[in-house]
């Protein structure tokens, strides 16, 4: 997002001292180390971030001209808008953003495909394999571990699976493990990942938990 900081107030998290820190499950489950206690994590309101980026792009797309300087400013607005949109889709389980439709509305009659193509807006391909159910973590939940390939990045991730009346359902809400500070997937990739995991779990004839 903005190179000089967020567009509004944000907060800094201070981790506890070494002796007060809990252990992580990275090594236990052999999954990607998404972040550790030495990392800096920024806390901000993704909805407000998106609203700010949307408002700025609307002004730039509708009011600025077509000279080189104006186009550079609009292109920057598009990049910030997309970053904010993907953040919102990552953190807000109820997000129903249709970015193509949104850009049509923001640009009105102006062609936005010279700034980002429709092809570039398609979610990057993700491949999943080695889906494995792990032990229960509570009476009504367990974990699923899986391997993923996402572009040049690959590794193992885990996700919560809710258990209700014997049915196993991949968790998609705000408490999903995949909605993390350093995510493995972009916000628009999550629906595919969730659906692929659910299909794999449904294929288990008699899961042992």
What does this structure look like?
- With 209 residues, this protein is α+β, with helices and mostly antiparallel strands.
- It has 5 helices and 6 strands.
- The chain has helices spanning 26-29, 46-63, 68-91, 99-107, 190-202, and strands at 11-12, 42-43, 126-138, 141-150, 153-164, 167-170.
- The strands form 2 sheets. Strands 3-4-5-6 form a 4-stranded antiparallel sheet, covered by helices on one side.
- The relative contact order is 0.13.
- The model has no long low-confidence stretch (mean pLDDT 84).
By secondary-structure content and strand pairing, the structural class works out as alpha+beta
Q: How many beta-strand segments?
A: 6
- Percent of residues in helices comes to 25-40%
Q: Flag low-confidence runs.
A: none
Distance between the termini: 42 Å
Number of helices: 5
The gross shape turns out to be: elongated
Q: How much beta, percentage-wise?
A: 15-25%
Mean pLDDT: 84
The major β-sheet equals:
4 strands, antiparallel
| Element pattern in H and E | EHEHHHEEEEH
Computed over alpha carbons, the radius of gyration is 20 Å
Strand arrangement, largest sheet?
A: 3-4-5-6
């Amino acid at each position: 997002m903005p190179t000089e900081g967020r567009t509004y107030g944000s907060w800094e998290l201070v981790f506890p001292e070494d002796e007060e820190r809990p252990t992580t499950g990275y090594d236990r489950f052999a999954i990607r180390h998404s972040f550790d206690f030495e990392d800096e994590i920024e806390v901000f309101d993704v909805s407000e971030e998106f609203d700010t980026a949307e408002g700025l792009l609307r002004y730039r797309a509708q009011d600025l001209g077509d000279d080189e300087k104006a186009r550079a400013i609009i292109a920057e607005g598009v990049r910030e808008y997309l970053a904010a949109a993907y953040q919102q889709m990552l953190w807000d389980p109820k997000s129903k953003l249709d970015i193509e439709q949104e850009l049509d509305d923001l640009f009105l009659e102006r062609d936005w495909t010279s700034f980002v193509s429709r092809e570039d807006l398609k979610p990057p391909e993700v491949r999943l394999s080695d889906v494995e159910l792990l032990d229960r973590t509570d009476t009504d939940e367990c974990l699923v571990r899986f391997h993923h390939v996402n572009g040049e990045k690959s590794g193992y991730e885990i996700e919560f699976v809710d258990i209700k009346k014997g049915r196993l359902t991949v968790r998609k809400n705000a408490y999903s493990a995949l909605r993390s500070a350093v995510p493995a997937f972009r916000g628009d990739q999550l629906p595919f990942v969730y659906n692929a995991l659910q299909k794999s779990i449904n294929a288990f004839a008699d899961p042992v938990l």
